[in-house]
Design a protein that fits this description.
The chain is α/β, with parallel strands linked by helices. It contains nine helices and 22 strands.
Length: 471
């Protein structure tokens, strides 16, 4: 599954005329769609070590975190302002209709956010999973609260321009009970936890998006919680996935959500809140990082993927690439992205499971050999595997066709068009390479060096969602 990719290509003798191309999306728009949940107010957990949290968010490369706000926590407000200075803004869960956890009444909550956080906030979100909070009148309470949130935010000049994300739910019938609340939202909300299964199943994601539309119609949708618990020895609760499987699934999850038009996706969560060496507690094992801040494979893979695709700058209109994929299996997924310098990034993967959550066993499905046919001049092609390395594993010059194996892990082909004069500069410095671990360890191990890719050789060129944790 993590073997070295063999890439083969042929040189262009005569540039063939370009045919109608495949439209690309902005690579940086994908990066901008990536978020992660944090709990900065949980100072009795790993989140009490803000210096570590800040460092790891920088290494990961995300620009958005999601969290709730309580009254009387100047330490937390200061931390969010610090993160905003680092370019990381907050999706703020605005209060609770029952005023629990010290959040106070809605007006106090909005005043606090306006006064203490202001520009540090990217969006305001309705109550979290209120349908399972024990309020016998929860439907009426939630509808009234969302309306007042919308009106209260728009009455405050400092908050009026912020997107208002709808509330999240656990039970599928809750959507029907609450009904249309799109008059008080800018975006919909969902928590499409895969429950240990592959993240990009059409049946699951189409169902989740259809449920969200019951409340917010055709508005954009955010997935404000999703991800995997690694509590493989838990006897109840959400089904787990191994750390190795999660490392393969999370890049696919983010890429597939973006491919489906989901405006932002937040993994639950950044770090395991408590140390649970027996992996028996579901809630303690959702992190991209272990409780001691050593990286899990998912953190490492996502940091590499974000670093590869990050391209901050002014907005631009992406172009198109004339290509096709020969030998593509029916479960091949692809996403074409472009940076401002004109270079393309083609992400390919197979929609396959690498883990059985019922038997708690790994799977290693066979790769499929495909050929990417390029129908316009390409100066250089490089293949990246975020689960393996931050460096290109294979490089060829002037290809017109690229043959490579595609598996359940994400492959990214970087394509420099023939008119390109120089390779793109990296958008940010690469973070130190952490180890790709499959199990928590007391100390981080050095990452193994990837085997060198074989020298390219010419080839002929023929023409039901499970219950989620509370934040």
């Amino acid at each position: 599954m993590l073997g070295v990719t063999t890439l083969t290509a042929v040189a262009l003798a005569v540039a063939s005329p370009a045919t109608a191309g495949v439209p690309a999306q902005s690579a940086d728009s994908f990066v901008d769609s990536v978020g992660v949940n944090v709990h900065l107010g949980y100072t009795d957990t790993a989140y009490g070590q803000f210096g570590q949290i800040r460092q790891k968010l920088d290494e990961l490369g995300v620009r958005y975190v999601r969290d709730g706000i309580s009254q009387g926590r100047p330490d937390v407000y200061s931390e969010f302002r610090t993160l905003a200075g680092d370019g990381i803004k907050l999706d703020a869960i605005v209060g609770d209709p029952l005023q629990r956890w010290g959040v106070g009444p809605l007006d106090q909550q909005l005043d606090l956010i306006d006064r203490e956080l202001g520009p540090a906030v990217a969006s305001l979100e309705g109550p979290n999973e209120y349908d399972i909070q024990g309020d016998p009148n929860w439907v009426a309470s939630l509808r009234d609260y969302q309306r007042k949130l919308w009106e209260g935010a728009h009455a405050r000049p400092g908050l009026a321009s912020l997107p208002i994300v709808g509330p999240s739910f656990v039970n599928r019938d809750s959507r029907e009970l609450v009904g249309d609340i799109s008059a008080w939202t800018s975006e919909g909300n969902m928590h499409p936890y895969p429950g240990g299964e592959a993240p990009d199943q059409d049946s699951h994601m189409n169902d989740e998006l259809a449920l969200a539309a019951k409340n917010t119609g055709s508005e954009p949708v955010e997935a404000t919680e999703t991800g995997y618990t690694n509590a493989v020895n838990a006897t109840s609760g959400q089904l787990p996935a191994s750390e190795q499987a999660t490392g393969i699934y999370m890049p696919r999850l983010y890429l597939d959500d973006f491919r489906r038009g989901i405006s932002r996706t937040f993994a639950y969560e950044l770090v395991d809140q408590q140390n649970d060496p027996g992996r028996a507690d579901v809630e303690s094992n959702f992190g991209l990082l272990h409780n001691d801040f050593t990286p899990k494979p998912a953190f490492t893979a996502m940091s590499r993927l974000i670093g590869l695709l990050s391209d901050p700058g002014p907005s631009f209109t992406p172009g198109s690439l004339s290509y096709s994929v020969d030998g593509a299996p029916s479960n091949l997924r692809q996403l074409l992205l472009q940076k401002r310098d004109g270079t393309f990034y083609l992400a390919l993967w197979k929609q396959e499971s690498v883990w059985n959550p019922q038997t708690l066993t790994e799977a290693d499905p066979a790769a499929s050999q495909v050929t990417v046919r390029l129908r316009q001049p390409i100066q250089r092609a490089e293949v990246y595997e975020p689960n393996r390395s931050s460096s290109a594993l294979s490089t060829v010059s002037s290809p017109s066709a690229i043959s490579l194996p595609v598996s359940a892990q994400v492959e990214v082909i970087h394509l420099v068009p023939g008119t390109q004069q120089a390779a793109p500069e990296p958008a940010r410095e690469a973070a130190p390479e952490p180890a790709l671990e499959t199990e928590p360890a007391p100390e981080a191990e050095a990452a193994p060096s990837p085997e060198p890719a074989p020298t390219p050789t010419p080839v002929s060129d023929p023409e039901s969602a499970p219950a989620e944790p509370a934040p």
